[in-house]
Amino acid sequence: xxxxxTPRRVRGTQDIFGDDQRRxxxxxxxxxxxxxxxxxxxxDLPVFEATEVFARSIGETTDVVSKEMYTFPDRGGDxxxxxxxxxxxxxxxxxxxxxxxxxxxxxxxxxxxxxxxRPQKGRYRQFHQIDAEILGxxxxxxxxxxxxxxxxxxxxxxxxxxxxxxxxxxxxxxxREAWRAGLVAHFEAxxxxxxxxxxxxxxxxxxxxxxxxDPRDRPIADAAPDIDAYLTDEARAFFDAxxxxxxxxxxxxTRNARLVRGLDYYRHTAFEFVTDRLGAQGTVxxxxxxxxxxxxxxxxxxxxxxxxxxxERLAMLLDEPATGxxxxxxxxxxxEFETDVVEKVAKLRRxxxxxxxxxTGNPKxxxxxxxxxxxxxxxxLGRRDGMPSTSWRNLTLSDVEQDAVRAALSxxxxx
Length: 415
What we know:
By secondary structure, the protein is of the alpha/beta class. It contains 14 helices and 15 strands. The strands form 3 sheets. Strands 1-5-6-11-10-9-7-8 form an 8-stranded mixed β-sheet. Strands 13-12-14-15 form a 4-stranded mixed β-sheet, with helices on both faces. A 3-stranded antiparallel β-sheet has the order 2-4-3. Helix 1 packs antiparallel against helix 5 (140-156) and helix 5 packs parallel to helix 9. The mean pLDDT is 90.
């Protein structure tokens, strides 16, 4: 008989289990708690969109669109793409679903995103992001709120130590146009020394040369003019308001004048929370203001600002996750009590009490398994002197919790 080969996991994907899953779930649960503190709503988006949503918003010259998207034709001939990020889909929904009526709109989302890239530490071809956006708010207060929210998320996850907020301004439209012209002039003077990728960017997206990792480009990029020389009074006032808000909220930040976003619809604030604990790929949360994004998709000019973070990367920074003890372990000391265990566990769970039943293996193994779960109370069902009997041991339940257990069960159980 031919041997059936076990299917393999696709390269660049992951199965999240055990401690990894507990860390993963802790990131999502903390994000949900923090977003409620800041009065952000929740939205869930399609996993795939029309390809033009990303080509028009992220930009056809970016690596994400030109090299990394999973794009395919559906049976009707339309080009579809698995989402590589959330912001473009949120902007599309803002237009198609009529969410303009709710502006300023504060929303979050989370889920799987897809990019065809070389797998590396904390980065997969299917990975997961959390995302927060404010649409319809042009004031620097929106940028401040999102940054303070991100800072609190990292603090509540217990990973803020060693993470630095790097902040920059991209200015307003007038500033960007003047800075872009200055960069083009600078890079044109060094055209013969630039890498092939940077020559392509010089014609289409010169700001992205500042991000180049090619050793040939770094000295030229480092010598390029800073944006500060081109800032209008309005752009400078906006950035000053953002930094003043962060200072008032007690959020530490550092200026990184080389932090950029290459696409024309980005404005004003750009930021990254960076750590040295994840190797070369040290960004754990990043975002910025994108006042021209909705307009690039055919909508009316609409201000927007947001950020995203990789769940896997945040989870990698967490300490050993707590498994969470079983509140009440219910043990059958013999087969005749297994149905009773099922009944009592069901009553406890319906009363909102965490409970686990132990009905497999011999009695000693049942007790051993229950002990490993570190319960806060144990209820065992067996026989004493030939009569059905129960044994109740309260380990660490509070008086209120113990009263809830007693209300869910019968007085006989505590005899």
